[in-house]
Design brief:
- By secondary structure, this protein is α+β, with helices and mostly antiparallel strands.
- It has eight helices and six strands; from the N terminus they run αααβαββααβββαα.
- The termini are far apart.
């Protein structure tokens, strides 16, 4: 079978010796992701049908999410160590903390995500929403998930600020959080950071299509481009977050007027 021959060839390849550590991680992600893809493409049949084909009328979003989307990003976590994930109905704690009632010290109503990525410090850094199954989309559900994701990203970024109030505002402006939303076979990557006016800036960075058949294997180029972007972006964040931590702890001196808490208070007063 053509797919199995392709898989055998894949693992017979040796990575070029001149690959950097970052490139080797990406190579490993590609190999493991394509192996899972071949597994899905070579589903066994009983005569002219299979158990999966008899259920094609069902389009449960969680089935699609777990089978096709989760493996790519779990492999990313396994091979890079930059993120660790919880999957399916994960409580976004920074949303609840952002809605704390100061009078009663009670957290707000929890929101849940279909995937939640924690960075190397344990901070929520990437939030994921599976908004549909493979074949059918409900527009109100997609819009609601988009709004929820943006709100969660905003609170994740605020959490970084709240734990680094004595750090430099200019360093904090380099912090980013990320979101991924799947709609049928499409996945969209977005990022959020604050600008020097204290406003949250949300951008859709990349989109890709998850391939489901061997004939669609060229679509992996878009998926791996997205994975490479996340890898490069998070590795760049390592040093920036380390600097933010050093500033918070006083290892790096920050003038009072340049601190996060002072700058953000100035922005709030200007708005009022």
């Amino acid at each position: 079978m053509q797919e199995l021959c392709w898989n055998t060839t894949l693992w017979q390849q040796t990575s070029p010796s001149e690959l950097s550590n970052q490139e080797q991680k990406l190579w490993n992600i590609i190999c493991f992701s394509l192996t899972s893809f071949v597994d899905n493409c070579t589903e066994s049949t009983l005569g002219s049908t299979s158990a999966a084909l008899t259920r094609m009328g069902n389009d449960y979003k969680r089935t699609w999410w777990v089978r096709r989307v989760v493996p790519v990003f779990q492999t990313f976590a396994n091979q890079t160590g930059l993120l660790s994930f919880d999957w399916c109905e994960c409580e976004v704690k920074h949303h609840a903390l952002a809605d704390v009632d100061p009078e009663y010290c009670q957290t707000g109503r929890p929101w849940f995500a279909d995937g939640l990525g924690y960075d190397w410090t344990g901070m929520e850094r990437l939030v994921m929403e599976g908004s549909s199954g493979q074949h059918k989309e409900r527009i109100p559900k997609t819009i609601g998930d988009s709004v929820k994701q943006i709100h969660n990203m905003l609170n994740m970024l605020k959490a970084i600020a709240n734990t680094h109030l004595n750090s430099s505002f200019q360093t904090f402006l380099q912090m980013k959080v990320y979101g991924i939303q799947s709609i049928k076979t499409a996945i969209a990557l977005s990022e959020m950071q604050m600008n020097d006016q204290g406003k949250f800036v949300h951008r859709q960075v990349l989109t890709a299509t998850i391939p489901t058949r061997y004939q669609e294997r060229n679509k992996w180029l878009g998926v791996f481009n997205m994975v490479a972007f996340i890898l490069t972006a998070l590795e760049a964040q390592v040093d920036k977050l380390a600097m933010l931590d050093d500033e918070q702890e006083g290892k790096i001196n920050v003038e009072t007027e340049e601190k996060v808490q002072v700058k953000l208070c100035t922005v709030i007063l200007a708005i009022q």
